[in-house]
Write a structure and sequence with these properties.
Largest sheet: 6 strands, antiparallel
Shape: rod-shaped
CATH architecture of one domain: 2-Layer Sandwich
Strand order of the largest sheet: 4-3-8-7-6-5
Oligomer: single chain
Strand content: 15-25%
CATH topology of one domain: Beta-Lactamase
Structural class: alpha+beta
Distance between the termini: 26 Å
């Protein structure tokens, strides 16, 4: 299903790429937005602490002015050494007062650009290294004392690890959520591709039924997108059938047009008694045999491989056996038909007339040469094949004679009636169906002819 180059693999691959790209982009966007939100919230808390610090401090003017903290600074961590939350009041670069959490350290405040804070109050925002080398976020505000006093810098700093600690659980949840969403979307894509391409599987099965002869046209309920293709294929199948039928008609007409004059010549030659008449009769008979051979070959070449051809094996074998028993009643032949394919409903994937001609030639040849027994064994073979063996208890053929008979249809014994082309015709017809005829020595003592043919699928 997912072989490289299949339509399913292409659809799934494109969908996976787009889903992955969308989820990754969406993940980065959500992570960025949430991180910015957490930083803004953190800055806002620091700004509130700056306001609280300003509110609880008292500063005296003058060179020896004293700065005092008159109440709680807004967070108990300001009292804990190195807690990660600090405040500091500077006069220029001089540290005037610092939170107990700084212990014996001070913050090296920077000169940063002023930006509007809450309610338009100008503040500075920047980062610097803390007492334990942690990264601190600093919010700083300038306060100018009354009566021309100095400008004091109120700064509150917080450890940015708090931001990361708040951001990390969100990222874990986001990754798991997007992963689950991606798997769900992938499952939806697989279901969509499976359901969407299912009509093509039904179309393939319908074509298989036509090809194996189980149906004459494509049948089934197909969606509107596939229906035009189905209609075109049905028209093509019907057209092929018409072409084959016209070819058969032309072959029959040609056979009738040629055989009638030859029959007249043969009849006239029989009435005359001269060397010329004997030659005409002999050559006329040869011409009739050759015409029959080549017309049969042309008809087979036109029908071999046509869609929908199917010929049941058992009825053909039964009919030929009955006919040959009557034809050779004087020889009291015993004709046995055995094998699983002979009675098991096996079928030849080809034209019924061609099957009758091949088996008829082989079985008739066996009856001509048999002393008293002919055996036909039909079995199914691996690879959707039929193996039909025709044996007799006659004189058989030597290995070198078998090749001659199959190659040219040469007669090796003029005492038995017939043209001698039967085995060659069978070999040529079988070859047109990607089959073959093999001659050997039969277990009965005579000739063994093994016919390998394509087998039609079961209905």
């Amino acid at each position: 299903m997912f072989s490289i180059g299949t339509l399913t693999a292409r659809l799934v691959a494109v969908s996976v790429v787009w889903i992955a790209a969308a989820l990754i982009a969406g993940g980065f966007l959500l992570a960025g937005l949430f991180h910015a939100h957490v930083e803004r919230s953190f800055d806002r808390r620091l700004e509130i602490l700056v306001e609280a610090l300003v509110a609880v401090t008292d500063a005296e003017t003058g060179a020896q002015g004293v700065i005092r903290v008159l109440g709680p600074q807004g967070d108990p961590r300001f009292e804990q050494p190195y807690s990660g939350l600090y405040w500091q009041i500077n006069e220029g670069a001089k540290v005037r007062l610092a939170s107990p959490s700084l212990w014996d350290r001070t913050l090296a405040l920077k000169k940063a650009p002023v930006k509007p804070g809450p309610e338009g109050v100008p503040v500075r925002r920047y980062q610097l290294a803390g007492p334990r080398s942690q990264t601190l976020r600093v919010i700083e505000r300038d306060i100018t004392l009354e009566d021309g006093g100095p400008t004091l810098r109120y700064a509150v700093a917080g450890d940015l690890a708090e931001v990361e600690a708040e951001f990390r659980p969100f990222m874990v949840t986001l990754v798991w959520s997007l992963s689950a969403l991606g798997l769900g979307l992938l499952a939806a894509v697989l279901i969509q591709v499976y359901v969407g391409l299912k009509p093509l599987d039904r179309l393939r099965d319908a074509l298989g039924r036509v090809r194996t002869g189980r149906a004459e046209r494509l049948e089934g309920n197909f969606p509107s997108e596939v229906r035009p293709l189905v209609d075109e294929l049905n028209q093509l199948i019907a057209h092929i059938g018409d072409v084959v039928e016209r070819a058969r008609t032309h072959v029959g007409n040609l056979a009738h047009a040629l055989k009638t004059p030859l029959s007249v010549l043969a009849n006239e030659a029989e009435r005359a008694d001269s060397p010329l008449a004997d030659a005409v009769a002999r050559e006329t008979a040869a011409m009739q045999d050759r015409i029959g051979h080549h017309l049969a070959r042309a008809r087979t070449a036109a029908t071999a491989g046509v869609l929908g051809q199917r010929a049941e094996l058992a009825p053909v074998l039964d009919g030929l056996s009955r006919a040959l028993r009557k034809m050779y009643a004087d020889k009291t032949l015993e004709i046995d038909v055995t094998g699983d394919a002979a009675t098991g409903g096996a079928a030849f994937s080809g034209d019924a007339h061609d099957l009758e001609e091949m088996l008829g030639n082989l079985m008739e040849n066996a009856c001509k040469w048999a002393k008293g027994q002919v055996r036909v064994t039909a079995r199914t073979a691996p690879g959707a094949r039929l193996a039909i063996t025709v044996e007799d208890d006659g004189p058989g053929l030597k290995p070198e004679q078998r090749d001659i008979v199959l190659a040219r249809g040469q007669r090796l014994d003029e005492t038995v009636p017939g043209s001698g082309l039967g085995l060659a015709i069978v070999s040529e017809i079988a070859g047109l169906y990607d089959g073959k005829l093999t001659l050997g020595e039969a277990s009965l003592g005579g000739l063994s002819a093994v016919l390998d043919l394509p087998r039609a699928a079961d209905r």
